[in-house]
Amino acid sequence: MARRNDLMPRSPLVLAALTAVVPEPGRQWCAHPTLAVLCLLLALALPAAPAAAQETTREVPTSRDEVMLSFAPVVKQAAPAVVNIFAKRKVERQRAVSSLLDDPFFRRFFGDGFGGERERRQRDQSSLGSGVIVGAEGFIVTNEHVIKGATEIKVVLADRREFEAELVLTDERTDLAVLQIEPGGEALPTIDMRDSDEVEVGDLVLALGNPFGVGQTVTSGIVSALARTQVGITDFSFFIQTDAAINPGNSGGALVTLDGRLIGINTAIYSRSGGSVGIGFAIPANMVRTVVDSARSGSALVRAWAGLAGQDLTSELAEGLRLDRPGGVVISDVYQGGPADRAGISAGDVVVTVNDQPVNDLQSLRYRVATGMLGESLDVGVLRRGEVVGIELPLEPPPENPPRNELRLLGHHPLGGAFIASLSPALAEELDMPDSWSGVVITRVQRGTPADRVGFQARDVILSLNGQSFQRSGDLAEVLDRPSDRWQIVFKRDGKVRRVEFNS
Length: 504
Description:
It is a single chain. By secondary structure, the protein is α+β, with helices and mostly antiparallel strands. It has four domains: 5-50, no CATH class; 71-301, Thrombin, subunit H (Beta Barrel); 308-394, PDZ domain (Pdz3 Domain, Roll); 407-503, Roll (Pdz3 Domain). Helix content is 19%, strand content 33%. The strands form four sheets. It has a six-stranded antiparallel beta barrel. Helix 1 (12-21) packs antiparallel against helix 2 (33-45).
């Protein structure tokens, strides 16, 4: 017979009764026979504490549906719209004229330059990636690095149909590209985009693509983090992080939620071995939508512009501004007459939210502006004198004023061989120089020229030449055409001002 531990009194009423009848403190309740009988009767008469209060109630599944858990319905909805992309490009390889001079044994000791004259040969190189059909008219979005430099692009659907694809739009700054195929009257599977701001950390997601060329593969995971801005993959670093396995070949594939809608384009992984370690990054659907909409319109990609510059609110800056915590963007400059200036934003303001979404750093602010629609406005929360003020910020295209007027500089001077242009907000956005709106900028430098030999680089901003400043490229070129015994050049690179001096 099993021992009945449940005969021990559990009810609070029983315990109270015992306390009342035991005359001596510390005396065991069962030591006296009469008390033992009394307590036993009370325990049997009064109900014990319900088991639910001590244990979690567990129920056995009552149907097949309750037992089965499967992502199959989501995959059936989303997978047909995920395609394989095969890109072919020409690569150039130098080869020695003599096969003896091209022998690996000699090149091992003497280098690739051994043997003097070499001939250039081109060969085909193929790359593999994934893409997502986002429009019944045949628009496909993928990563820019998947098709970069491709001379031929082939798309293979999940049902094995094959199409030649045309490149419609590329955007290196976001690592996105839009292709188009001609379905010839055939129906194409598509996938709808979801507002990526609705996604939360912990949401279940599926990653679909073609890793290592093994064929379409589905992996599952969760959203590990949002608004990753310190990854440094693209100019607009603002990624969804997931632990769903993403491997080479998944680039350009879909990241979908359990409603079968697209929330991101898988673009990169963090890995030391080349394989997935559970840290993958996807471009949010809201950024993807701006690029796809531009491709549909047939116009050049123009992003919204706010006309402000700033820096991350660090712990040191927060302490100096007497704020209790870091986070936000301290406005350092506002373009005169631009959207932010007209809205009332000024230097010293701290932007903390955009459309009720937190802004933790400058990359977050740039993302919110870049994904806004031209002609609309953003609700910006600005911390000013200890209070958060709501400001309506209109979104406009950046103006190209003055016109860029790109020129190639010739002559025997330190800038010979450089291409220069007049800076404007539009050109600054193209060159990813959001805090430089005026002056003369070097757009590129021809190799082997004086400018290349002395170390000038693209995106260097010429602040002054021999003490004279310039706003237009033509004015700088005119001064360089005049002979001089000495050149004093002040320029800005990566936010730092540098001074150099050359003698003729």
